[in-house]
Design a protein that fits this description.
The protein is an alpha/beta fold. Helices cover about 25% and strands about 20% of the residues.
Length: about 450
């Protein structure tokens, strides 16, 4: 192992000046000891107007709390669960951006980067460290920052691809062997299992998959045991893919690019996933400008992208980032993959979600909530799946879309949706006839 000269977290964060822009590596790789030391400086009154940027992070995010108003300003590229309350309350803010372009914000200078605070694996004999579970926009931040502080952590896996960087890119090293934040997912419920089955039925042998995080992707993956030669080109994956890799179902053999490799930009899961990518040449952790570029995504055939949403209206407009005016998450990579999958030969772009909320409110509605933003536009829409079935909206007229969406809505909401559609289009005979003939 190459020798490293370490400093303390307290010493390292002294490079931060008032007015600086700081990038934090994301998800499981958030450098907690540096965050803590930076916040101590904030409490001591040594800093003001420091801007912080990251995708979503796991673990505490104290810099977004009200006590640091005027000291730290979080402008995140995605609103994660740990900063949702403070963002909705106005103490933190959000920069709307496609996940594919988060790296470009730094590279084109739209967002400055003075200090990049990252986590890396232990150095190897060639003097390289790995960014491990999170390459995303962090590589761009490392390239653009005036100063790079790296936490060397034995728990950060040695991942290949763009994750490997020479130690010469790093200015200050801090040692902190703190286990990475794990994300555990609940077992899918009945509704999620039904959605999983409908999605799995759309996945062909030889497909390249992208799916987001949570119960629905896991429910889909659980149904794919009988499939052959699946590939992964995604922004993230979690534990659900591991059994399929072990069973030889996911082998990347049918991919046109990165054949035989699983491609991702960040990971979120249990230690099983982090151990899986450690020293694994079958996994390429790539820059988000590569994983989420629709034109690169489209180079593989049968790209099947499964993403979820919060609400869809009867014309096919999808809201995925806010509940009305309240920001809930972010644009993320949904549009990157919906567009990429729909341009892929034999590809399928799928939006999947339960038909109603836990409180019994239909997620399929006549109009989106006031203030809701459209993430996936009605012209981007292809497949839409709920527990009640799968419908393809592509090439369908507005009236046909309404009919198809109502057919997979929750039975308790169908009558009201029928009425809304009728009011919207009802002067036309064929619309009325379609409904009266039910």
């Amino acid at each position: 192992m190459t020798q490293v000269k370490f400093t303390t977290a307290e010493e390292a964060v002294k490079v931060i000046k008032s007015g600086d822009h700081i990038h934090l590596s994301s998800v499981a790789s958030a450098p907690q000891c540096l965050i803590k030391a930076m916040c101590e400086r904030g409490r001591a009154g040594e800093l003001k107007d420091v801007h912080i940027h990251h995708l979503h992070t796991e673990g505490p995010a104290p810099y977004s709390e009200p006590e640091f108003e005027g000291v730290f300003q979080l402008d995140s590229f995605f609103v994660g669960g740990n900063v949702r309350k403070t963002t909705q309350a106005g103490y933190a803010d959000y920069i709307p951006v496609f996940l594919s372009e988060t790296q470009r914000l730094y590279r084109c200078g739209a967002v400055p980067c003075n200090v990049a605070m990252i986590q890396v694996s232990r150095p190897d004999k060639h003097g390289f460290v790995s960014l491990g579970t999170s390459v995303d926009a962090t590589l761009a931040a490392v390239e653009c920052a005036d100063t790079v502080i790296a936490v060397v952590n034995k728990y950060v896996p040695r991942a290949f691809g763009d994750a490997m960087i020479p130690m010469s890119k790093i200015d200050l090293f801090v040692e902190d062997d703190q286990p990475l934040e794990e994300a555990h997912f609940t077992a899918p419920n009945e509704v999620e299992v039904a959605i999983g089955k409908h999605c799995a039925a759309l996945i062909e042998d030889g497909a390249t998959l992208q799916m987001g995080i949570g119960a629905i992707p896991n429910a889909v993956l659980a149904q794919l045991g009988g499939h052959k030669n699946l590939g992964i080109h995604t922004e993230m994956f979690a534990d659900g893919v591991l059994p399929l890799v072990r069973a030889g179902v996911i082998n990347g053999e049918a991919k046109n690019i990165d054949k035989g490799k699983m491609v991702s930009t960040f990971l979120m899961g249990s230690n099983d996933v982090y151990n899986f990518i450690d020293d694994n040449p079958a996994v390429l952790m790539k820059d988000v400008g590569y994983t989420n570029d629709p034109y690169i995504i489209a180079k593989n055939d049968k790209v099947t992208a499964i993403n979820s949403a919060l609400q869809i209206d009867l014309t096919g407009q999808v809201c995925a980032d806010s509940l009305g005016r309240k920001f809930y998450s972010g644009v993320g990579g949904q549009v990157d993959f919906v567009y990429g999958a729909s341009m892929s030969k034999g590809g399928k772009a799928i939006i999947a979600m339960p038909s109603i909320t836990n409180k019994g409110v239909s997620k399929i509605c006549d109009a989106l909530m006031p203030g809701a933003g459209v993430v996936t536009t009605r012209s981007h829409m292809h497949w839409f799946v709920t527990e009640n079935g799968a419908v393809d909206l592509y090439g369908k007229s507005l009236q046909e879309r309404a009919r198809l969406l109502i057919s997979v809505a929750h039975p308790s909401a169908q009558e009201e949706l029928d009425r809304a559609a009728f009011e919207r289009y009802g002067s036309h005979h064929h619309y009325i006839k379609g409904y009266m003939g039910k």
